[in-house]
Structure formats: C-alpha cells, structure tokens
Design goal:
The complex is a heterodimer of chains A (428) and B (337). With 428 residues, chain A is α/β, with parallel strands linked by helices. Chain A has one domain: Aldolase class I (TIM Barrel). Chain A is 37% helix and 13% strand. Chain A is built from 18 helices and 15 strands. In chain A, the strands form four sheets. Chain A has an eight-stranded parallel beta sheet with strand order 4-14-13-12-11-7-6-5. A three-stranded antiparallel beta sheet of chain A has the order 8-10-9. Chain A has a two-stranded antiparallel ribbon with strand order 1-15. In chain A, strand 13 (338-341), helix 16 (347-355) and strand 14 form a beta-alpha-beta unit. In chain A, helix 5 (117-129) packs across helix 17. The longest helix of chain A has 19 residues, at 378-396. Chain A is globular. Chain B has one domain (3-325): Bira Bifunctional Protein, Domain 2 (BirA Bifunctional Protein, domain 2). Chain B is built from twelve helices and eleven strands. Chain B has helices at residues 3-11, 19-23, 26-48, 89-95, 138-159, 161-166, 175-179, 187-196, 209-218, 271-280, 289-297, 309-317, and strands at residues 52-53, 59-60, 74-77, 80-84, 101-109, 125-134, 183-186, 223-226, 249-254, 259-266, 302-308. In chain B, strand 3 (74-77) and strand 4 form a beta hairpin. The radius of gyration of chain B is 19 Å and the shape is globular. The chains are: A alpha/beta (428), B alpha+beta (337). Chains A and B meet through helix 8, helix 9, helix 10 and helix 12 of A and helix 10 of B.
C-alpha cells in the first residue's frame, strides 16, 4: 500500500525530460516540498502502511518435509494409530501466557485505525480466541486514560469480556511520552486490570523500536484541533503545507546498559507483571535480544522491516531496517522466548518463523484488515485458517508441536543448504 | 471476590476507627506523645550535627519517580501538571547549593499499591526526616543515621518512659541498639541468607517485604543493608564506580519485625551520569528540566537519607500497624478523610 510515486500532481513540465530517472517524484518534491517525503496525508487513518517493497527471503524459503519421520513414529506409538494434522498441538506459552495457537495480536499504536472501533473489535475476538493481545504505545498521551472511551481501558474491558480463564493475557506498551503519563503505573494499579494481574495475565512491553521505521518514534497526522491539544506532549511539525501537521514521538535512547537496567527496573517495580521487550530490526538485534533475556525479559519481539501499521516516511518504509529472516539469522538459537511480527497473516510464514526460532508470531495489519472485513468474527476466522494451515504444515514436516520445528525444515533457493539465504535486498 | 477486595476485607479489622473516634483513642494519644518527642530528639540531634532545618516543597513539576508501584498524585497548577511530593530528594540535592547540611521533616504522598494496605507498614500520607550532607560519603550518612536513631531512642525513653511502658514496650528491647554499632550486611549477603532460609529473593531486585521482615525478626538490633543493585532504586543513588551495577546506598532495617526505617545513599551529581541513569530507569529526562539545568550548573556531591517518621514511631511504640501512629491515617485503597 506504500506509494512510491509522487502523489501531488505533475504541474507544468517546463520542457526538461530525464528518461530513466524518477522524474515524477523529483517534480512532485519540487512542487510540493516535504509533504512528498510521506504517504498522502489524506490516506492517514484509512490505510495501513508497512513496507511493501521489501522482498523478505523468509518468504523465499520452502518448507521441506523429510521422507523419514522419527517424530511421526513417536506420535504413532503415543496414539496407537497413524497421526493426522488434527494431532498437532498448537498450544504455546507466549511470553508467560498460555495460548491455544502460536499467535498473538500485535500492537496497533495510537493511529486512528487501531485505537477506535477496530481495536475494540480485535480485542473482543482476541479474547474469544484466547490469544495474548498487545496494546500499543502513545495511546494514553494521545487519547487519555481515564476519559470515557479511553482506548486502553476499553480494550482491556473488551478482552476480559470474552477471554476464558487460564488463557491469553494483555501486554501494555510504554514509550517515552507514555512514561510521562506513567502508563504502566496507571494500568498496574487500576481496578480495570486487576483481574489480569490477579490471574498472572498482565505484561508490560518496553518498546525499543518498530519495524516500519527503525530508529524513529511513532508518527501520526493531526488535524488542527488535535495539533493544539497535543502540542505540549509531542513534537509537532508542519510538513504537509496545509493545516495538517505531523506528530512525532521520540524513539528513546537505548544502550546495552539502559536496556538491561530498564528491564530490571520494570521487574522490580511491577513484580506481578510479565516483561516483554519489542525491538526494531536493528543490525545489533541479536545482542539486544540477549541483553533483554538476560535481564529477565519474558519475551522479546522482533518486528521485521516488513512490519508496522503506522505512518512512516517513504524512505523508512522502503529502505531501512533488516528483513525478518536476517534478524532471525543473526539471533540464531534464541536464549528466551522470541516473538516475530511483520507481514504475518497465514500459516506458511508463521511456520517459517517458528522454524527459525520464534515461539509465536504477531498479527498486526492482518488483524486490522480482518476485523475491518468483519468486526464480529473476521479475526477469529483468519486465525482459524492460520491455525489449520499451521497444523497441516507442521504435520507435513512429521512434527506435532511448534517447538519441534528447526531450521532443517527450511530450504533456501540459491543458498548453501541449511543456512538462511542471502538477503535478496529491497526492490523499488 | 477479587484479590484487591480480599486484601481490603482482610484489612477491615486492621483499619482505624472513624477519624473522630481514632483521634481520641488512647493509643493515638500515646503515639502522638512519642512522636513529638521523637521529632524533638531528631531536631536536637541534627541541629547538633550542623544541619539547617528547611521546610520542604509540597508540589512541583516532577517528584521522586519512586518504585514498587507507588504513584504520585497529580495537581493542576494553573494549567500545568504538577505532582505531590513522593519525596523531596531532588530539592534536597538542589538545596545543597545554599545549605551544606540540611534536613526536612517532610510530608510525602505516595499512592501505594492496594495490596500494601495489609502490610501494616504503608500509609499514603507519611513523613520523613530527610537529611542531606554535602561532601559526605555513604559511611558518613550511615553514621549520622545510626546516631540519629540512637539519640531518638534514648530521648524518648528519657522523656516519655511511662507512655512507652504503658504501650507494653520493654526498655530491654532497645538495649542492644543503644549499646553498640549497628551491623552491616551487603545486599548480596542478605540475598544469600534469604535463599538459605528458603525465601526466594532475586539478586537484581529490592529485598521484598516478606524477606525484609524475616531478617528483621531474627535481629537483635537494627542493621544496615548496603549496595542494592542498580534498577532497584532511583537514578539519584550513585553507582559504585569500583563495582558497576551496585549502588552506594543503604537501608537501615529495624529489629523485631519492624523492617526498613531508613533509605539513603551517596548521590549522583554528575549531569551526564544523571541523564543516563534516568534513561536506565525508563524516565524521560525532558520532564526533569529544572533539576537537570541545576545539575548541569553544578550540584555538590552528597550523601543523605530519609527516615520514615511513622515507621520510627511504630518501632518506638511497638504498635502493630502504621495507621496507629498517624493522627490522620490514609491506608492504600481506603477512602478516608
């Protein structure tokens, strides 16, 4: 859904031509200036973003069932009959939470799409599915906490209204600006989240970065009224040349010691909550993940450069960050619970991610699309389809639990066997 | 019944009577008699140590970020979001520019987690004898804390012995306290002892309340615990440069199950280190602008501590719960006047 060409109209061409050069984009910038750095402002709130142009070699890998299947024999002995795909047990512990499938609902952030009705519809269905749900950053400073219709409380209520005992959990992110609003403190002491805390189903996620714009904070487009309201809390930039403005949250400063200590600080201050950490696809993603696990994080989520629902500059969407497969290659065998997000929607990509060490995959854009297709049951049907596909694929590999998948289950075209393929590279 | 409701139900019998009744209860009157002598003794001792008494601020744009889930209360200050002081540590450090040795008897407000209502050791409104000493080391601050506690104990037994014995307190409970120096254990020692006692305790975290109480019951006089791990305390406690990851701080734990009376530390005064430490504790440095501007301009190196007044009086009187030694107690989660 990324727009690659200038979107502001061409205007007069003045006679000059530059064949083979992105003439249209140059002319659009010459005419409209900085607004051309971004997707169209009027698409904000209606469209989801995230890289379309990155060809992730994770999707290039083929799942390769063996002929000899000792684990199928084990299952045969266990069952006393030939096993089928229904015998694949997808139940997974995701960052401390029991889930019937190795899938969770990713954060949608504070963008209009994810914070309103669709976010609530997704929460209700995630609860019914019993999968963990992440509530994104910047929701409280943008939308408020105690206000009627506060997205955090509304989504927690919606989730709790449908989730069964003993499964699922809610994960609340906190960004730099959220820290000013003390989101975790508010949630930790709120009667609304008490049922989660008491059943060990509340987690806090330290958001270090995101796939759609690694190294940058969250961005949204504001109308004039929103600009005035949020001016004290966020940097507001005039980049569109009209009365809309760009709200930029800060990404935060992290070093190895800052990550280690923040995780410890969270464990110390919120001893009854699980601690999750979300990383952007940085080149040192392996070191960052190990730092978080060793400091006591219950889960580390890696958001590949393909990920994200939020607003991002085109250059970030198209050119920045490692694809998920490369992140997984760098991490190798994970020391702790590793979660993956970015372009996840069907069983094939999820199973490939699991084979490369992930415990579960997060649905972001796919979940929003599914609930927009059918707010009643769209996400449930999507996850049911994904679960069936995952069972089929795992049983085809002669395995019956997600955690038995390994890199041997994948083959990479054009690469030395057994290794993750070389990066295909982004294609514009 | 939710866990919070269960906690509140369990604390029902531990709650104060309605305020009008609580104010004229004999235990309240006795506790106040001990409290005023404790404060008199503290003031005498600290003035004798060359400390100036200042009155602490009640609200500010930021306050001590605290820990263990305690929250600050918001105040609308002419359209600005101000906070009630959870502690005046930032102001104590800034004040060293004009007052080299100072103390407050400071009122603080911390919205503690509801589950602390039943500990007998938490009140939302409480006071601290808050001391800060320019140029001091941790050892200097511990010496003053020990001297202060010994002086206060001696003073109350001298001035209101009948009140203490009337509450069932035995002078002999304090004999070891008055008799010798307090023991000193490292955080690592305490973690080891607790694990040996079968109590799970993370080496990276604050000593939990149950663990602290366990050790407090086994002791015969107060003891110091030093060197808490970074991540368990605020950004203003200085990290030990010779032992990275460990803070130059201390707690003073009372014997007899009364637990922590004092928290103190050498303070970080280096601007760049303070900013970095703020990030390590998940804080946004931008909101601490006045404090950071002051630090950039120069804050003297120091050490200091806060001694909880109500915890001190509970220890002196031997009463069961902290609310019994407050004239106007506010328990976590319980809406009272």
């Amino acid at each position: 859904m990324t727009v690659h060409n200038g979107h502001g109209g061409s205007g007069g061409h003045g006679g000059a031509r530059a064949a083979g050069f992105p003439e249209g984009q140059v002319r659009a910038r010459a005419r409209h200036g900085t607004r051309e750095v971004f997707p169209p402002a009027d698409a904000y709130g209606r469209e989801m973003f995230g890289a379309a142009a990155v060809v992730d070699d994770l999707d290039q890998a083929r799942l390769v069932p063996p002929v000899f299947m000792p684990q199928r024999l084990e299952k045969l002995i266990d069952l006393g009959r030939e096993p089928g795909h229904d015998d694949v047990d997808l139940a997974t512990v995701i960052g401390g939470f029991a889930s019937p499938v190795p899938v969770f609902l990713s954060a949608f952030g504070s963008t209009r799409l994810g914070s309103t009705e669709l976010g609530v519809a997704a929460s209700v269905q995630a609860g019914r599915l019993g999968i963990p749900m992440v509530i994104g950053e910047n929701v409280v400073p943008v939308h408020g906490y105690r206000a009627a219709g506060s997205p955090v409380l509304t989504r927690i209520d919606a989730y709790l209204s449908t989730v069964a005992d003993g499964v699922g959990g809610v994960v609340v992110q906190q960004s730099i600006e959220d820290a000013d609003s003390e989101v975790w403190n508010l949630v930790y002491s709120s009667p609304a989240s008490a049922p989660l805390l008491e059943s060990g189903r509340l987690a806090f996620e330290l958001k270090i970065g995101q796939g759609a714009k690694p190294g940058l904070g969250g961005m949204t487009v504001l109308d004039p009224a929103e600009s005035t309201r949020l001016a004290g809390r966020f940097a507001i930039h005039d980049v569109f040349g009209d009365d809309h403005t760009l709200r930029c949250a800060t990404p935060g400063t992290f070093t190895e010691e800052i990550v280690r200590q923040q995780v410890r600080f969270m464990r110390n201050n919120f001893p009854r909550a699980r601690i999750w950490v979300k990383l952007h696809p940085g080149r040192d993603v392996a070191e960052a993940a190990v730092t978080a696990w060793q400091a006591g994080a219950d889960a580390v989520t890696v958001d590949g450069a393909e990920g994200g629902t939020g607003w991002a500059p085109l250059a970030l969407l198209d050119h920045v960050g490692l694809p998920l497969a490369e992140c997984l290659r760098r991490i190798g065998r994970p020391e702790g619970c590793l979660l993956v997000t970015g372009r996840m929607w069907e069983g094939g990509r999820v199973v490939r991610g699991l084979a490369l060490g992930a415990t579960a995959a997060g649905l972001g854009r796919a979940a929003l699309l599914a609930v927009s297709e059918d707010p009643e049951s769209g996400l449930e049907r999507l996850v049911d389809s994904l679960a069936l596909e995952t069972r089929l694929l795992i049983s085809a590999l002669g395995k019956y639990r997600p955690d038995t998948l390994t890199a041997d289950d994948l083959w990479w075209p054009g690469a030395a066997h057994g290794a993750v393929g070389e990066r295909v590279g982004s294609v514009l | 019944m939710s866990q919070i409701q269960t906690v509140l139900a369990q604390t029902q019998e531990w709650r104060p009577a309605p305020l009008a009744e609580h104010l004229c209860a004999p235990t309240t009157r006795a506790a106040m008699a001990v409290q005023q002598e404790a404060l008199q003794g503290a003031r005498d001792y600290l003035r004798g140590q060359g400390c100036a008494e200042l009155l602490s601020p009640l609200i500010g744009p930021v306050t001590d970020p605290g820990g263990r889930g305690a929250k600050a209360l918001d105040v609308d200050f002419y359209g600005h979001r101000y906070r009630m002081m959870t502690s005046a540590i930032l102001y104590k450090q800034a004040s060293l520019r004009g007052f080299e040795r100072l103390f407050y008897i400071a009122p603080n407000v911390r919205v503690e987690p509801v589950e602390t209502a039943g500990t007998g050791r938490h009140l939302v409104e409480f006071h601290q004898i808050d001391v800060e000493l320019a140029g001091a080391t941790r050892e200097n601050a511990m010496e003053v804390a020990q001297g202060l506690l010994k002086h206060v104990v001696a003073h109350v037994w001298e001035t209101v012995p009948d009140v203490l014995t009337g509450l069932g307190r035995d002078r002999m409970v304090f004999a070891d306290l008055l008799d010798g120096p307090f023991d000193q254990l490292s955080h690592g020692d305490v973690v080891g002892s607790l694990i040996d006692l079968g109590h799970p305790q993370s080496p990276d975290a604050e000593i939990d309340w149950e663990g602290e109480e366990l050790l407090s019951h086994k002791a015969h006089r107060p003891f110091f615990v030093t060197g808490y791990p970074k991540g368990s305390r605020g950004f203003y406690d200085r990290e030990d440069r010779d032992d990275p990851g460990t803070l130059c701080n201390f707690d003073l734990i009372a014997h007899g199950g009364f637990g922590e009376l004092v928290s103190g530390s050498e303070r970080e005064s280096d601007y760049a280190t303070i900013v970095t430490r703020m990030r390590e504790s998940g804080e946004n440095p931008a909101k601490y602008r006045w404090y950071l501007d002051t630090a950039r301009d120069g804050i003297p190196a120091s050490a200091g501590f806060g001694m909880g007044v109500e915890r001190l009086v509970r220890f002196l009187t031997g009463l069961d719960a902290l609310w019994q030694v407050s004239a106007y107690p506010k328990l976590p989660g319980v809406a009272t006047p």
